[in-house]
TrEMBL record:
Residues covered by region (Disordered): 29-87, 565-661
Source species, domain of life: Eukaryota
PPR repeats: 165-199, 202-236, 313-347, 353-387, 388-422, 423-457, 458-492
Name of the protein in question: Pentatricopeptide repeat-containing protein
Amino acid sequence: MALSKPFLSRLLPLPLRLRPQLRLLCLATPTPTPTDDVQAPADAAAERRRRKRRLRVEPPLSRGPAPQRAPGVPRSASNPNAPKIPESAAVLSGKRLDLHRRILTLIRENDLDEAALLTRHSIYSNCRPTVFTCNAVLAALLRQARYADFLSLHRFVTQAAVAPTVATYNLLLQLYCDCRRPDAALEHFRLLLKDDSPVLPSPTTYRILARSLAENGKLDQAIELKDGMLERGLVAPDTQVYAFIMGGFVNAGDGDTAVSLYEELKEKLGGEPILDGVVYGNLMKGYFLKGMENEAMDCYAEVLGDGSKVRFGAVSYNMVLDALGRNGRLEDALKLFDRMCMEHDPPKTITVNLGSFNVMVDAYCRAERFQDAIEVFGKMAEKRCAPDALSYNNLIDWLGKNELVGEAEGLYEEMAERGVNPDEYTYVLLIESCFKVDRVDDAVGYFNKMFDAGLRPNANAFTKVMGGLVKVDRLDEAQGFFDMMPEKEVKPNIASYELLLRAYVDAARLDDAIKIAKGFLLNESVVFSDEMKALLEGALEKEGRDGDMTKLYEDVEREKAEAAARAAEEKARAEALAKEEEERKKAEAKAKEEAAARASRAAIEAVLGRKKEEEEESADAPNVEEAEVVESNSDTIGVSDEQSEGDEQKRQESVEASSGP
């Protein structure tokens, strides 16, 4: 009889019967009970739902709620041409962070070529640079005004599908604004305003555009930009945008609009006092333009008096300082400058920069206190400010206009001592200064120094030195500089032609004047004005040379026709050469194709020949084997025959032996 399980358990000793209950004390799953069997599926399903809710990833934020897909409607395929969402800062980790730090090190070492090259090489590597790394290299190129390299790298990373951020757009807009191309900047700005754009403009975007439009005199477009900023509501009313536009109207002499813009900004901000001091400098200039000097000084006392909560930095202080210096308030400007120097406590508080000293130099020079201007210029090092070529040019310009050429030349020599490289404008200012005090040879010497310094003077520089020579009746030397322009790959401008034409007419050198007029008419990049035409015709009529003007136009038309014929002939020759080159390339390509076809046929024939030989060898192998088998069989048959003959002979001998007795 078989023992049942309960009966067996009663026969077991007590320690063995208690062993199943001891499982509760270990980490294993307890023995399920009938109740647990019912609740286990429900608890497991609930746990899975909780885990899914905990691990669920929320969709990214967008311009509005995501459209709901109707039941039964198939999911639409994503558009591959849709703008990509830029990466977040969280991707800057691991190897990509190491690459970012390596490129930043190259930027700090001023090795921008290597930084840009490493960025390009890393684009298609396993460690792809982030958009923040690309922005760092682009910003470094922009700071050094390497615009061509900037555009080349920007085009490369864009084609490599690196999604740009708003900082990338701002850098591109700043480049076009620095090149004085605000229209191109506006075209790129409109890309940010599209409905499918994943990037929205920032306050910096509007500030860059507002400043450029104001500086280039495009005030109507600046107002449209400001109104668009307010209508779209993407950016709150920005004080710096208003300040730049107010400065544009101040430079245009429209103080009423500048003041009205301040009142509009104050209304947009709820009527409360504006605590950003950047607007008050242009507001004071607007008051001064309107003749409201008392209101301007009341504004100054209110925002910079004791207990004022208006925040001022170096830029906003400089605007107020400039307003005082331009309107004869030098003493107030000096007090404010002293206050700025006392509050200056870098890096915590920065209230003085290079622009502050430039503004004070302008203020002293307007008051004809040039020695004080030179002294304050020399104090830049005390505030850790290093003058650049622009600062030197500003002071040299003031000194040269007031015939202080010795002091201007001293500043020029100081530039070399401090390692500041003079630019073309520096030499033009020195040339004008020397001509002003009748130092003609020194002026010509400064012009020649431009070539020694590796600079390329433009048409304006040539015109300056030609104008100085014309004033002292050295027309032949002026003509020599004019003839030098094509050799230096400089195109003469209208001012160059008009300068020499007037000089030759005044000197009654009409043949030379006709030559200049002929070059004027042949140069299609300039326009021979009616004024110059009337001047030359009047001079020729006085000398009784009325037909020379008609002959001049006939010669110009004939030379233009000859030049057009030569251009057409050269074009035809170039097209013929291009056609011959194309035919030659086609013939070479055809010959290569035929050679490749022959080589292919030879290879195929060789392969087929080898296969045929293998087949023949495989076919001959069975015949040889059959012959060997036949031969072996014949040998076997021969041996058996000999054996049978031997056996027969032995039987006969045995028979004969038995019959003999």
